[in-house]
């Protein structure tokens, strides 16, 4: 019976994945997680946390991947040393946060996106076409918008997420996110 249940679950996940070809990576992860959550009664591989926590992990993983990629881009393309330094901080801090999100998701059997969302992919592509001071200004503008969105995600999650391990991650990470904005908002940096 267990083997049959596991096969049924695998079939459902494959079916969802195949039907999601037009969706971006984040939407695919959300769909797979919905199937896992819906089949939790019969599925030993089901998610072991609440829906809000699962959703937060997917969105946080997406943001962390994007920040790392944007930081790497700044390392290659920035001309202003402060922008380049900020890129180093983004790559380092968000790679570490990404590792934590991945560990939390793995413990809870949450599927994370394999790549950044289409929206963030477009931001990265648009920025990669710029150079010199145009890149520096566009990068900072993108980072300010991205940080406000990420901080909003974390602040909203503090009220909605029930999982204690994820709450701890949020509470430990949110102050650092807010501190990252300080050098970006410093008008002298670009």
Round the mean pLDDT to the nearest integer and report it.
Answer: 83
Low-confidence stretches: 1-18
- CA-based gyration radius: 18 Å
Query: What is the number of beta strands?
Result: 0
Q: Which class best fits the helix and strand makeup?
A: mainly alpha
| Helix and strand sequence | HHHHHHH
Helix share, percent: over 70%
Largest sheet: none
Number of helices: 7
Shape: globular
Straight-line distance between termini: 63 Å
Beta-strand content bin: under 5%
Describe the structure.
The protein has helices at 2-19, 25-38, 51-77, 81-108, 118-128, 132-160, 164-185. The longest helix is centred in the last third of the chain and has 29 residues, at 132-160. It has 190 residues and is mainly α. The protein contains 7 helices and no strands. The protein is 78% helix and 0% strand. Helix 3 runs antiparallel to helix 4 (81-108), helix 3 packs antiparallel against helix 6 (132-160) and helix 6 (132-160) packs antiparallel against helix 7 (164-185). The radius of gyration is 18 Å and the shape is globular.
Keywords:
single chain, mainly alpha, 190 residues
